[in-house]
Every structure is written in C-alpha cells, then in structure tokens.
Write a structure and sequence with these properties.
- With about 325 residues, the protein is of the alpha/beta class.
- Among the domains are: about 75-180; about 275-335, no CATH class.
- The chain contains ten helices and five strands.
- Strands 3-2-1-4-5 form a five-stranded mixed β-sheet, sandwiched between helices.
C-alpha cells in the first residue's frame, strides 16, 4: 500500500517540478522583451574588462552604438613588461628541481623575446620616465634567464631577491599605466556626458569583473566619479562574470535581466532591489543562525544592509540606506 502511494505521489511531484521547465521559456521571452525596451528607451554605457585597458560602448536610443577609442598602446607595453617579470619568476620556479619539458622548451623563447625588447627599447616610443624602470626590469629578467640557461642553481633566496629587486620598478610602471588608463577613460566620459546632456542623469552603466578585480575595480570607480555615489547599485552596476572578458551582448543580458527582476521585486515585495541579491538569503540567514545555535556554533554572518545601500564593493553597513533590509520587514511579517 505504501508502495502504491509512492507511485501515485511521484507523477504529482514531477508535475510540480515541471513548472520550472515551463517558466524557463517564459523567462527567456520576457528577457528578450526587457532588453528591447531597455535599448529603445534608456542610454547605456557598457564597460568591459580587456587586456588593453578596457572597452567602453555607448548605446543611445535611436542612434548607432558608439565604441570609444582604446587606451594608448603604451599602456599595453608597460603591462607587458610588468607581466614578463611574473612570467620569468614562474618559469624559474618550474625549472627548479626536476623541470618539465614545457618549462625547459619555453626558456630560449622567453630569453630571446626579453633580449629583443631590451635591444629595441630606444625605439619603443616610451618616454624617459617609462624607459628607465623598463630597462631595469628587462635587465633583471635577463640575469635570471641567463642563470637558468647556464644551469646555475636557482634557490629560493635567488627567486626572492629577484622579486624584491623588481618590485620598486614594477610599481613605477603600474603608476604610469594607471595614469594613462584613467586619463583616457575620464576623457571619453567627459565627451559622452556632454553629448548626453540632461539624459546623463538617467543613463545606466554596467561593468564586468571577476573576484580578483571586484575590489578597487578601475572602470567602475571611474564611472562612479561621473555618475555619483547615489547611482551606485541603482544605475551603476558591477557584474561578476565567470571569465575576465565577456561580450557586450552577455553584459546587456545581465543588465536587462537585473532591471526586469527589479520590476518583479517592486510588484511582489514593494522594492526593486530585493532581487539584486539572493532571494533566499534572508531566510537562509535565519536558518543558519538557528542551525548554528543547535550545534553551539558561533554563526559567521554578514551584517544586514538596506536594499537601497550605496556601499561598494560590498553592502554591509546597516546604516547605509533608508529601505528595509529583509523581505519579512518589507511585507510586514516583522516590525
């Protein structure tokens, strides 16, 4: 009899689960409609991570998409030199002990590339302030690569000395590269802000990031200077993507989905930002606190920030907004 009851319940349970499959198509169609409405009504700036210092695009209703010029090529040169030191360090680490075939094979090519860069440095287009630290770094690379090629022992102390010797010169190149990148993008946004005039105040912007660049994100921070603190989390959004780079279409989809979900949040719970975060988060926090208590564990939980918090990159301050901070408060279940 129990077996029969289980057989009768299984199709019913599957029918409930099938609701999820049915709504997937609806969500897809709704997202396409939301994206169409967004592009037809709202100015948008997309700021995408690239190895060339970023990519910015401006979407204006009724106008062709505008893609900004790239950061000056010097930025990439300085970045390449900085990364070369890390590559030499990693290669030296791999060559210590029992080197792999790949590491041994890579050594001549990296050495030749480093020497060629050093030989052609006067023709690189770098200015004097950039050439000096670049020459130091390429020279340090050569010393370590020559040591590896001659089978001289590379100890942990040798590697440590190499890294420490590189550090001051790396910081100088980082400072210069950052100045080029920031000056370039702030110039672009000066132009776009003037072009849009009053509509700048209703422009949305989306930036993509990975965990490692979420804090101190350069493109997001630059946009915050032009859009203001009150735009953070409202019109200026930072999306984590599974890779450093993404496509404009994927970033547009993320933005459109977020704004469409805000309409649902307002309709169901009275505030659009409730669906910017894990919708089960409040309930899960309460459940974690209860389960931790039963286990005599001290719960490790973040503070609860209001839904309209303008903090970044993390919303954790309970005093950072005026809206409620939980769904239960929003719908009147808690005072």
């Amino acid at each position: 009899m129990t077996h029969g009851s289980e057989e009768r319940r299984e199709p019913a349970g599957q029918a409930v689960l099938d609701l999820n499959s049915a709504m997937t198509d609806i969500y897809g169609e709704a997202l396409a409609a939301a994206k169409h409405r967004l592009l037809a009504s709202t100015p948008l700036v997309l700021a995408l991570f690239t190895g060339a210092g970023g990519r910015m695009m401006l979407y204006r209703p009724g106008h062709p998409t505008v893609e900004a010029p790239t950061v000056p090529i010097t930025y990439q040169s300085l970045k390449a030199v900085s990364h070369s030191c890390l590559a030499v360090f990693e290669l030296a680490t791999l060559c210590c002990g029992a080197p792999s075939v790949n590491a041994t094979t890579a050594l001549p090519g990296l050495g030749a590339a480093n020497q060629r860069a050093l030989d052609l440095l006067p023709e690189s287009g770098l200015d004097d302030d950039e050439i000096q630290p670049t020459r130091h770094l390429l020279g340090l690379n050569s010393q370590l690569l020559n040591r590896l090629s001659s089978s001289c022992p590379v100890t942990a102390d040798v590697l440590s000395d190499f890294a420490r010797a590189c550090a001051p010169h790396l910081v100088k190149l980082i400072d210069r590269a950052a100045a080029l990148q920031v000056s370039h993008w702030m110039g672009v946004l000066d132009h776009w802000q003037a072009m849009l005039g009053a509509t700048w105040e209703r422009t949305f912007a989306a930036v993509n990031t990975m965990y490692v660049t979420r804090q101190k994100n350069i493109l997001f921070t630059i946009l915050a200077q032009f859009m203001g603190e009150t735009s953070i989390g409202e019109r200026l959004l930072l999306f984590e993507t599974p890779q450093f780079t993404t496509t404009p279409d994927n970033l547009l989809d993320l933005l459109a989905k977020t704004l469409a979900d805000r309409e649902l949040g307002r309709a169901f719970f009275g505030h659009g930002r409730v669906m910017d975060v894990e919708i089960l988060g409040d309930a899960a926090t309460a459940a974690i606190r209860a389960e931790a208590g039963r286990r005599r564990m001290a719960p490790v939980l973040p503070t609860c920030a209001p839904y309209d918090s303008k903090q970044w990159p993390w919303c954790t301050d309970p005093a950072s907004g005026t809206a409620p901070s939980t769904l239960r408060t929003l719908v009147g279940l808690d005072p």
